[in-house]
Design a protein that fits this description.
This protein is α+β, with helices and mostly antiparallel strands and 152 residues long. It folds into two domains: 75 residues, Beta-grasp domain (Ubiquitin-like (UB roll), Roll); 69 residues, DNA polymerase, domain 1 (Orthogonal Bundle). It is 38% helix and 14% strand. The mean pLDDT is 95.
C-alpha cells in the first residue's frame, strides 16, 4: 500500500511498488490527462510534478511517491484558467495535442523556480518532444504566462 497526495487528495494505492506512476494515474485513478508516449522517459508526454518537481511518470515507480504530493494536468487548474493554459491557447500551441499536458506540466515546474525565464532557459529546461514542432509558440506562451503570473 502506497499513501500519497494526488491533486490535493490523500490516496491509498494498493499496487506493486515498481509499477510506473503513469499506469496508476491512468488505469487505477482514471486521470487520463497524463499521456503515454515513449515509455522510456524521453518524450515527456507523461510529465507530472512530484513535490513540485517535473518527473516522467512512465519511469517513476509508484513506491517513490510514497508520502509525497503528485500533481497532474488535472490538478494544475481543472477550470483551464491557469495562465499557462490560457496562453497555450492564445499562442496557438496545440496542434495534435498529444504532448500538451506533459509540456504544460514541464513549463509549470520551470515557472515554479524561474519567475521570468529567457528564451534560452525555456528551451534548455523544457526537454519534452513536440511532433508538431510548435517550440517557438511554446516559448511565447511560457514567457507570456510568466508575465501574467508576476502580476497576480
Amino acid at each position: 500500500m502506497v499513501e500519497c497526495e494526488i491533486n490535493g487528495e490523500s490516496k491509498s494505492v494498493e499496487a506493486d511498488g515498481a509499477t510506473p506512476l503513469l499506469w496508476i494515474l491512468r488505469d487505477e485513478l482514471g486521470l487520463k490527462g497524463t499521456k503515454f508516449g515513449c515509455g522510456a522517459g524521453l518524450c515527456g508526454a507523461c510529465t507530472v510534478h512530484v513535490d513540485g518537481v517535473a518527473v516522467r511518470s512512465c519511469i517513476t515507480p509508484l513506491i517513490s511517491v510514497s508520502g509525497k504530493k503528485v500533481t497532474t494536468i488535472e490538478g494544475i487548474d481543472n477550470s483551464g484558467e491557469h495562465p499557462l493554459q490560457r496562453h497555450w491557447i492564445n499562442s496557438r500551441v496545440p496542434q495534435c495535442g498529444y504532448c500538451q499536458s506533459g509540456m504544460i506540466m514541464a513549463a509549470a515546474a520551470l515557472l515554479g523556480s524561474v519567475k521570468s525565464p529567457s528564451e534560452a532557459q525555456v528551451r534548455e529546461e523544457i526537454t519534452n518532444l513536440c511532433r508538431c514542432g510548435t517550440y517557438n509558440r511554446i516559448v511565447e506562451a511560457v514567457q507570456a504566462a510568466a508575465k501574467d503570473m508576476s502580476v497576480e
